[in-house]
Amino acid sequence: MIMNNHHRKSFIRILLGATALGAIATALPAAAQNNCDLVNGVLPAGCETGNAGETVRMPVGANTEIANGARQPATGFIISVDGETFEGDEKVEQKKRQADVALAKADIRVQADDLAVEKRLDLEVMGPTRGHKPGDTVRFQSATNYPAFLTRGEVRIIDQQARGGPRTVGVFPIGPNGQAEVRLPEGRDLVAVHRVYDARGRYDETTALVLDRPNQARGQDDVEEGSSTTAIDRIPVRGGAVTVSGSSLAPNETVSTLGETIRADAQGRFVLQRILPKGDQTVIVQTKSAGRDVTLAREVELGKTDWFTVAVADITVGHREQAVTGTDGSYQKGRLAFFTQGTNANGVTITASTDTREEDLSDIFRKFDEKDPRSLLTRIDPDEYYLTYGDDSTFEEAAPTAGKFYFKAEKDENFALWGTFKGQVNGSHFLRNERTLYGAQAQYKSAQQTKNGDEKAELQLYAAQPDNLPQRDIFRGTGGSVYFLQRQDISIGSETLSVEIRDPDSGRVLEQRTLVYGRDYDINYLQGVVTLRAPLTSTIGGGVVVTNPGGEQNVNLVAQYEYTPTAGGLDGYSYGGRAQVWATDQLRFGATALIEKTGAADQKSYGADMLYQFSERTFATLEYARSEGPGFGSSFSTDGGLIIDNTPPVGGTGEAYKAEVVADFADLGFTTDGRFGVYYEHRTLGFSTLDHQVSATTGDETLWGAYSEFEASERLKFTLYYDDYKNDAGQYAREGGIEGSYKLSETRTLGFGIEHLDKLTARETGSRTDFALRYTVKPNERLEWFVYGQATLKRSGLEKNNRVGAGGSYAFNNGWKVEGEVSDGSTGVGAAARVSYEDENNNSVYFGYELDPNREFFAGSVTGDDKGRFVSGGRRQVTRDLAYYGENTYDLFGSHRSLTSTYGVDYARSEFLSYTGSLEVGRINDSINGDFDRHALSFGVRYEDESLTARGRLEYRRERGLTGGTNRDADTILFASSGRYKIDDTQRLVFNLDASKTDTDQSSILDGKLVDASIGYAYRPVTNDRLNVLMKYRYLYDDYGQRIDGTDVTGPRQRSHVLSLDAIYDVNQKWTIGGKVGARLSDSSPDATTAFSENDAWLAVANVRYHLVHKWDALLEARILNAEQIQTKEYGLVGAIYRHVGNNFKLGVGYNTGRFSDDLTDLTYDDKGVFINLIAKF
Questions:
Q1: Are residues 243 and 230 in the same domain?
Q2: What is the spatial distance between Cα 834 and Cα 818, in angstroms, rounded to a whole number?
Q3: How many domains does one find in the chain?
Q4: Is residue 1152 within a helix (H) or strand (E), and if so which, with residue range?
Q5: Count of alpha carbons within 13 angstroms of residue 813, beta-carbon side
Q6: Which residues form the signal peptide (predicted)?
Q7: Is residue 464 within 8 Å of residue 437, measured between CB atoms?
Q8: Are 850 and 893 in contact (CB under 8 A)?
Q9: What is the pLDDT of residue 548?
Q10: In a domain, 1020, yes or no
């Protein structure tokens, strides 16, 4: 901290004053403690309040405790009218209270909530964390918190790489919250989804769970996980959430409740939540362990029209005696704030809030829809005013908004919303929206459904003012799991990550799968680093005829996210929506429109589509889309983000058409198992969407194709395919062939194929016909091997594609697995090898190498031969408390050589203390395009026990080198920490420290230094709350300067100490004294070029309050404000008296003799005068 001698002296004086105030306030209880304490529940003589004996009417709940010996009727029921009981047995209500007491003694809680009804659905894989292949037996666990609304469930196995697109290859029944063992069917890339149905055939479905590699969706028998991966949400639930929890059970003790049995964790804690239908429900809780056998029952009522509301209105009218020149001195100010949430009798749940902050009454509603720049700070730091209020309260963002107002009305799947939301406009092949926006959003889904469970009509609309700019980064898979985003300081929760498979010639998206945070990936928002839970290969797929030894289709990681630009505020809008309707159970029509005017984007896009769904495997689609103007560009990287190639948005106007027909032979009446499909797609110059940018390089693009798969017999299968791509630049690529497989025996298969290729591209021109044979042997589930050979029968222009190769895989009994392939041919040597180890203790090791003779380099020029790419890594669970992981990717592409490394450790030092650390290193040696290095270091620590919770994280990122001749040197250091300490039942201490030092290109993070340190203290007694003390100290060093007025000009900088101490003491039932000390010691500068100047001030306040319950409030307050640099002192005396009107209003009048207020940031000095204040609270 920087503090000169003058600051130090002033600071000492202020601290002495604050200490004296605290000492006086603390000593006061001893002086007055014995005057008016209750004696045998009665106040001593002379201590009666001024309104003693008067009666006021207050709404309070009924007391359900029944006095001993009171005679009660034994009718067993209660009859009441308008809440007044006139006949019945109050013991019915007493039983609920008795159950609550018994549950509390057993440290078990039963809670019913009609407002927090949030559905959960998940699919977990039981057993070891390893990948699964076709033929393996997998045990799945269904997990949901609304089984009372479900009738059945199923696990659907889908082959994501089936010819023509994803195909369901198996459906297996599983009960809600039940288990099912499934033998995986044949397929290239298998995933599993969990679908559950209600009585009307409506269904919900999870996101796809990858099966062929380890993932984190691993369950534990009888332990409630509480996660949710819902992707399709169509089943409405009406009722309430019942939560049963406990924290003092024996480790692994069983608990039976809500019709299920679960086990407590190692700390003896458990939580089980279920959504139950409306009405009266009986919750039975049973626990069994050594020495304890408890059975309790609790009655709950669900589905009531419960509401929670809090509101305050504050209006002040006054006259300033020393008004600013040009004004008449009168003013009218007000503030309106409220929050409400509840469900009405029609089942509509409403959540609404507003906070206008104090404004002139003429502007309080006029600026209602404006974004509030301070809302970001209050969302990031809810302790912006006092760090702690000593009551252990928590902060929950139930009404997320970047403005002053939030509103959401919802019923089932229908809602209308104003606030901050994430757009989810989808359903069209070409057009969609995934941005995080502020504005209005609405969704309608009809109650009527088709026989397949689809809503007959759907409507999605949004209109917004974007707070951030979108970024779209595309990474070719590296065989590793670490990818560096182009931007840093990512908006939390704004990302959408997906894996897509594309045809390398036409750019056609063959498959797209959205990833789930926490299960499929982790992200460091400050560093902009994505870590996948499993490595991502660069290419995938291929048939019998090998065109590319490394794989036929490209695999990309697509990251869509938002970031805040450093060049000032955004001015623009974004709106659009989608509507679709099922004319029949099989025919659907849809329309989509998107308008973007944000930053460089000025685009209108719209489209229409039609779907004819005969069955799940037989359908036809037709779609048209048009875009006008430039949208948002994207970036592309082949090395995990070390070198990034930016693609600017395409301007102009373009169109796209798409038609596709897929038919299953069974739906056509054939007995042969098989299907066929045809597709056509045309994109014109200027067409620009998230997935496609048609530029002048290619001009108009046309692609079409057809395929068929069928079984000629139980042993013989055939696949026929043809794909055709051409563009207006004269380029084309045509590929067609026939492949087959013949099952020689249960363990041996012979594959054969012939393919013709005709190409005219910037890299290749000519034609070729190849023939291939492949022999595969799988003697058991652990061993598989193959050999193949192929030859070019005819060619013209293109290089020969003669090739021979062999490969296989073997799974050892001890967890090790070896798989690999090597081939040689006309285009060079190709190889792929991987050695891996996995066990049930979360240990894994892998080492891989791949050499693709046809691999291309996109980021600049390169010379020399490609020596391939090495990938090695693993995770080791050393003990229950210690685990470490690491991964290295070494790429040898001629003169361009890169090394990407990541290392990390998770260490639980004890039950209370844990450490995390990670290191990411990227290095490029390129004699042509320039060398480049990147290092990212992260270290974190967390401690938590009953009294102390503290955490800290240090982030460091260093970049050095050139990319295409551009200097990329940058350094970023970030530190964030926070803590809460419960000194005892009456005292709390909170502290925060954030610091940063950056030297960057200023694209997403500014250059400069920042230190923001604060300490908060609260003294809030429980049994004797006469004295209450709040304190806050903050040190701010801001060398960045805030961007102001939407310009690229650095704003004010400051170095400041701010201290605030408040104390109040109840002398007796009527009189309260209090005081406040505030100080600001600061140096400020209006911009980066002006020298700092001192700006110190301190404020002292002493007051006395009179409170006559439900009658009168009075205040007399003395203030003194000292401005050090101008050597002036201001004195003031404020007096006010308020009269209560009913339970919700009070009206007051007051006078301020001083020119200043108690707000150190108020520099107008015009507050002298009379005022009238009206306060309404509900």
A1: no
A2: 6
A3: 6
A4: strand 1145-1152
A5: 0
A6: 1-32
A7: yes
A8: no
A9: 76
A10: yes
Are 917 and 1055 within one domain? yes
- pLDDT of 293-343, one tens digit each? 777 777 777 766 778 889 999 999 988 887 656 667 788 888 888 999 888
**What single string gives the DSSP state of each residue in 283-328?**
EEEEEEETTEEEEEEEEEEES---EEEEEEEEEEEEEETTPPTTS-
Pick the range with the lowest mean pLDDT from 265-274, 811-820, 866-875, 919-928. Answer: 919-928
Report the first-to-last Cα separation within the chain, whole angstroms. 44
On whether both 138 and 109 belong to a single domain, the answer is: no
Q: 263 vs 753, which has greater pLDDT? A: 753
Which token pair is 179? 């288990």
Residue whose structure tokens are 């002048």 = 696
| β-pairing verdict for 539-540 and 553-563 | antiparallel
How distant is the alpha carbon of residue 506 from its chain centre? 34
pLDDT at 30: 41
| Tokens standing for residue 584 | 């029949």
444 and 500 in one domain? no
Q: Sorting pLDDT into bands at 50, 70 and 90, what band is 82?
A: very low
> Is residue 752 within 8 Å of 740, Cβ to Cβ?
yes
At residue 102, what are phi and psi to the nearest 5 degrees?
-65, -40
Residue 295 confidence (pLDDT) = 79
Bridge partners (DSSP) of residue 594 are 576, 605
| Alpha-helical segments (H) within 782-897 | none
Mean predicted confidence (pLDDT) in 998-1020: 73
Q: How far apart are CA 114 and CA 301, in angstroms?
A: 9
112 and 212 both lie in a single domain: no
More confident residue, 1052 or 414: 414
Shared domain check, 489 and 458: no
User: What pLDDT, on the 0 to 100 scale, is given for residue 79?
Assistant: 41
Lowest mean pLDDT among 20-24, 96-100, 325-329, 703-707: 20-24
Task: Examine the domain organization and report whether 13 and 130 are in the same domain.
Answer: no
- Max CA separation in the chain (angstroms): 116
Q: Is 0.90 surpassed by the pTM of this model?
A: no
- In sequence order, what E strands does 761-893 have? 765-777, 783-796, 803-811, 816-825, 828-838, 844-851, 866-877, 882-893
* Of 475, 556, 480, 478, the residue nearest 872 (C-alpha): 480
Summary count for the chain: helices (H), strands (E): 3, 72
Among the residues of 662-779, which ranges form H helices?
Answer: none
Domain boundary among 421, 442, 464: 464
The structure tokens listed for 1174 are 């009206």
State the residue for tokens 């391939």.
Answer: 868
Half-sphere exposure of 1142 (CA within 13 A, CB side): 7
Q: What is the dihedral of CA 303, 305, 306, 308, to 10 degrees?
A: 140
**Could you tell me the CATH number of the domain that includes residue 153?**
2.60.40.10
88-142 pLDDT, tens per residue? Answer: 444 445 555 555 555 555 567 888 877 767 889 999 888 766 677 788 889 999 9
Euclidean distance between CA atoms 495 and 475, whole angstroms: 15
**Distances 470 to 461, 462, 491, 598, 970 between C-alpha atoms, Å:** 19, 17, 10, 9, 23
The DSSP output letter for 666 is G
Q: Which residue has the tokens 């001009």?
A: 699
Q: Who contacts 374 (Cβ-Cβ below 8 Å, separation ≥6)? A: 357
Range of the domain at 788: 712-801
Q: Distance between CA atoms of 842 and 838, rounded to whole angstroms? A: 7
